[in-house]
Design brief:
alpha+beta
Length: about 140
């Protein structure tokens, strides 16, 4: 049963997403909960330039993490930069945070920002209940 559910749930989500994408209706914009930031070292920047900035960059990044602004961070597998998930309400807030870091100040990196929100098709699993509605209370235990 669990294996069937593990296979069926992703298929259901894909089906819902494809169905919704084919419909011409305009969906209400989702509330941004996080912003994905992909940092890539600019082409032609010497490795020495990056290494000179890294001690200050790492300290400032750790401060942002400890302040709760950076939720997650990863190295890119291709070695060309990092990926951050920031706790921001919109892309402009994320841009202003990243602009304060040394790599940005010295124009050594390019940034790609993507606003993220909860996976909207999951609300269809709740039937007609809107995603923002409070969860139903469970019946009392016997």
């Amino acid at each position: 049963m669990a294996r069937t559910l593990n296979i069926q749930l992703p298929l259901l989500l894909i089906t819902i997403a494809l169905t919704l994408g084919a419909q011409p209706q305009a969906a209400a914009p989702q509330k941004t909960t996080d912003v994905l930031v992909m940092l890539t070292v600019k082409p032609g920047v010497a490795r020495e330039q990056i290494l000179n900035v890294m001690p200050e960059e790492v300290r400032d990044t750790v401060r942002l993490y400890l302040a709760g602004k950076i939720r997650q961070w990863y190295s890119r597998s291709d070695g060309k930069g990092v990926i951050f998930i920031l706790d921001c309400k919109d892309v402009s807030e994320a841009q202003s945070i990243m602009d304060q870091l040394p790599l940005a100040k010295q124009k050594l990196a390019d940034y790609e920002f993507t606003a993220m929100s909860p996976l909207a098709p999951l609300s269809y699993l709740l039937g007609s209940q809107p995603a923002s509605a409070a969860p139903a209370t469970a019946p009392p235990a016997k």
